[in-house]
Amino acid sequence: MPQLNPNPWFFIMLTSWITFSLIIQPKILTFVSTNPPSHKPTTAKTTTPWTWPWT
């Protein structure tokens, strides 16, 4: 069964992961996020209770 022979496919997988890890990933990680998270303090929202007409 040729599907069980890992000889060509393991090398292709290993080469693609090394390429991704060493070449592509550092280039992607150097981009600056266009929408950085804001560090504003969170304020508690005041809510008013709903007045039901039948109670």
From TrEMBL:
GO molecular function: proton transmembrane transporter activity
Mode of membrane association: Single-pass membrane protein
Subcellular location: Mitochondrion membrane
TM ranges: 6-24
Database matches in Pfam families: ATP-synt_8
The UniProt record lists the keyword Cell membrane: no
Positions of the UniProt region annotated as Disordered: 36-55
GO terms under biological process: proton motive force-driven ATP synthesis
Keywords: ATP synthesis, CF(0), Hydrogen ion transport, Ion transport, Membrane, Mitochondrion, Transmembrane, Transmembrane helix, Transport
InterPro entries per UniProt: ATP8_metazoa, ATPase_protein_8
Chain intervals with Low complexity compositional bias: 40-55
One CC-aspect GO term: mitochondrial membrane
Family, as annotated: Belongs to the ATPase protein 8 family.
Protein name: ATP synthase complex subunit 8
Originating organism: Hypocryptadius cinnamomeus
